[in-house]
Amino acid sequence: MNMYQLQQFHIQPMMQQFHIQPMMKMDNTMRKRERSKAMEKERLQVMDLSGMSLEFLPKPSLDLATICKLDLSNNNLQEIPESLTARLLNVEVLDVRSNQLNSLPNSIGCLSKLKVLNVSGNFIESLPKTIENCRALEELNANFNKLSKLPDTIGFELINLKKLSVNSNKLVFLPSSTSHLTALKVLDARLNCLRALPEDLENLINLETLNVSQNFQYLETIPYSIGLLWSLVELDVSYNNIKTLPESIGCLKNLQKLSVEGNPLTCPPMEVVEQGLHVVMEYMHHKINSSDQNKTKKRWWMGKIVKCGTFNKQFRNGKRPEHVGYNMLKHQNINGLASPGFMGMLSPLRLFSPHRSPRHFFS
């Protein structure tokens, strides 16, 4: 073995060792971090205090920062203490449905990790503006309350919100910022008093389900921008006072379910509606392409739709898209549906289990 070979023999193992040791240190660091995260998850707890007929929450005897899910549903709580909410630093799910709450604490804005908030079945008239600080929120359920409005800038702040359920309230309008909830997949605003929807709906690029049914005599029109909701799969506008559907609906290439019953519709006409969703889509597609539809007030929306090339490609080669679940139009008398007896049936049931003592949480 010559001198050169001898040098190579000693140098190469040293170089390999030099590279391996840092990699081993990195692996050990990553393992420690993973173990630390696992231990933290094990330390976090789920607290279920539902159905205990609690009227108030005594002073907690446990570190609230260890809770990742807190269920206080189906009780008789009239308020949630500010001090309690402020210390739920790691909570991801908070369920206070079916209580007697008139409001939510302002400290709810401290819940930076909150992903699911369920406040349905209470008597809440407005949501605190601080809820906009819950930027990790993905699902907000405020059904069956007394909401007359939502925070004006809610759409600018809750950028991760995927599901917004506010049915069975007293909402007259949705804030214009709602159209900026770009992550939103489900919007349920049925059984309210909506007069109109935000005009610039095209920003809801991920919206799959839109339900604004049963606003009865209040909702008379649907914005033309609805034709730009490319991801929309289900649209329910039943039991309103809509006479004309916007032609832009013909551009909803992914639409599979359209519910329009209970409206005094004149366009599209009954004979078209009775033939099913694919015929309605073709009818609207034809109207939006017809020369007499180029009205000034629609040109801006037309330009957007043409730019996206939606309706020019939708029925290429004469093929019709497959649509299922179409509910045939039938203008029915809604007096029975709007009667106090029927509306009373829509109230959430407040079922309470027998009295139990809260375990491991409150002293």
Automatic annotation (TrEMBL):
Keywords: Leucine-rich repeat, Repeat. GO terms for biological process: intracellular signal transduction. InterPro entries: Leu-rich_rpt, Leu-rich_rpt_typical-subtyp, LRR_dom_sf, LRR_domain-containing. The keyword Repeat applies. Transmembrane segments: none annotated. SUPFAM superfamilies: L domain-like. This is Uncharacterized protein. It comes from Glycine max (Soybean).
